[in-house]
Amino acid sequence: MLCTQAYISCRACLKSQPCLPPSTGVIKVYSEDNTSRAVEVPSDITARDICQLFILKNHCIDDHSWTLFEQIPHLSIERTIEDHESVIEVQSGWGMDSHCCLYFRKNYAKYEFFKKPLDFFPEHMVSISSETNGIMNHSQLIQTFLSSSSCPEIHGFLHAKEHGRKSWKKFYFVLRRSGLYFSNKGTSKEPRHLQFIAEFSDSDVYTLLSGKKVYGAPTDYGFCVKVIQCRDFQPLSVFRLQSVLTFCTDFIISLTVILNYTGLQQSRSVLPMVL
């Protein structure tokens, strides 16, 4: 539960921190029961700082699972705000007429990828990209994914729906550091058969809150690559229901790691996908 105090000042809470800069802002944070509290924060405060602030004020047990989420109700999507991200900067990207909001709640899988990376990447979904030479075992592939400029490919089937159409079609997708592609010829990964879908410059990865109801997707498990400030997007959905959770998690985590470690900064647009 959030504290009952209707307005929280960060100055009063983080006594061990140095004095705040004069530039501050006010954000509203919701709890799981949809109650909200206004918080005065410095302009450079991060998501991790906000979590620590609410953990302190609400006397929560810090089990490293408390997370700040960004939710976009009109698109029925949300994402985990990464620890290092500026919350004020996230909020500044919202339109004046939007109903975007911040949620403070637990996400037990927040750091699981870094604790048990091999659990998230079945061998049949991971392979060395064409940019990488040599043969590696599964463990080495994951290490390469995390620590070098090249990374293993993540591949599998997704359903996609073209704009203006109600039906979904199955495609074989390939995720590389350079972007997301689908094959126009079965499971072929030859360059001439791969069609570009999305790159990861200045993008965020969201999950769908209600894929079936809102997007008519085959499953409720989905993700979205939302390029900032663009309103159009293309939904994708998981094909193999028996492995939907693993498959969805693989793509989401892979995309998130790529977005946070490539350092690419280019143009903005929106591309949601449903798994």
Could you characterize what this model shows?
The chain has 275 residues and is of the alpha+beta class. It folds into 2 domains: 7-106, Phosphatidylinositol 3-kinase Catalytic Subunit, Chain A, domain 1 (Ubiquitin-like (UB roll)), CATH 3.10.20; 113-261, PH-domain like (Roll), CATH 2.30.29.30. It contains 7 helices and 14 strands. The protein has helices at 10-13, 47-57, 87-92, 112-115, 138-147, 211-215, 244-261; strands at 7-9, 24-30, 36-42, 66-72, 77-80, 101-106, 126-127, 153-160, 169-176, 179-183, 194-198, 203-208, 223-227, 236-238. The strands form 2 sheets. It has an 8-stranded mixed β-sheet. Strands 7, 8, 9, 10, 11 and 14 form a 6-stranded antiparallel β-sheet that branches. A hairpin with a 4-residue loop joins strand 4 and strand 5 (77-80). The protein is globular. The relative contact order is 0.12. The model is unreliable at 1-15, 238-247 and 261-275 (pLDDT under 50).
